[in-house]
Amino acid sequence: MSMKHQTPLLDELEKGTFPSFVKEIKRAAEHSDYAQDLLGLLELSYKEKVTHWKHGGIVGVRGYGAGVIGRYSDVPDQFPGVAHFHTVRVNQPSGFFYTTKALREICDIWDKYGSGLTNMHGSTGDIILLGTKTENLEPAFAELSSRGWDLGGSGSAVRTPSCCVGAARCEWANIDTMSITHEITQHYQDEMHRPAFPYKFKFKVAGCAVDCIASIARADMSIIGTWRGDIQIDQGEVKNYAQGGMDIQKEIVEMCPTECISWDGSELKINNEDCNRCMHCIAKMTKALRPGPEKGATILLGSKAPIVTGALMSWVIVPFMKMEPPYDELFDLVDRIWEWWDEHGKNRERVGELIERLSFTRFLKDVGLDPQPAMVKEPRRDPFFFWSEEDVEK
Ligand code: SF4
Ligand code: SF4
Asked: Is the C-beta atom of 192 inside 6 A of ligand 2?
């Protein structure tokens, strides 16, 4: 198919060595009217320096209040191919593991019902299928669900949970991130597909404190694998690292955030009482150091990007929780948190913002969590809670 629109401004974005979204849309435009008119619409926006997408109209599929994001053009007569250009969010597999067959299936379905353009993956984690008409939503969904796919979350609902590859590929995983994510997804189907919260709620599960999915900055609830007990040390392997040229003093001892490691040239010692399980030493000396034997997760709450108030990082709310199926302790905690948020949260207030507004002390009391030193927001300076006289007496 030859190009319908001249795109001199967009063409500039194809120059240079970087991958270009314009190149990809042009490839799709060889067989898609949507992509043809998408190029025309974008060119107009670049020229006029205004967006030609507008909000409006709720669209979705039967039985679901989430998973489809409605989008319309404000110049439909000029670009009929993108008069409607709705996005469909499809729940990705945990850890982003696909077979080639599954990927082809998704692409074939989207070539048939939509623009053929995808975004693998959106920032929450979903497979994003970009651009279709209202009348194609039901048939696209019917075909997706008949092949075992389901929609993800959107709006004021649980958003599609996501995780790092964890135990599937990574030796540092302290928890089975994929199993936990799968179980959360199954357990909270209703909360994901039928928005009923003050605002969105995201779960992200990382196997260790390296936190490859940045759960600590991006999830309302971050579940991060950790351990109890002493870091296991193989002194022979430590020596091998030293003999191999590693400057253990500089690269390990001086980089430990809690200054709890010492090295005298022949033996590495760790004061495990002070270790905050940041993973630095283990990640640097994989062969010599291993996490302690008892595995579990630290549960944190409250991070978000800067939309209503500024960006927030998650706070520790449970320093250590065993993470074994069926994860009842986790679900019980989540239900208590949601009840509190539901009761007190304003419209479009994330749970972290609510904690900031009503105080962490109040949150802990209402949700029934005991205050602990690991919950301090800024160590040694700015505690979030104060001991009452009763506590001191005890
Ligand atoms: Fe591995 Fe930890 Fe990264 Fe997960 S977060 S992939 S366990 S290093
Ligand atoms: Fe120090 Fe982090 Fe290693 Fe613990 S895990 S000993 S805090 S570097």
From this structure: no
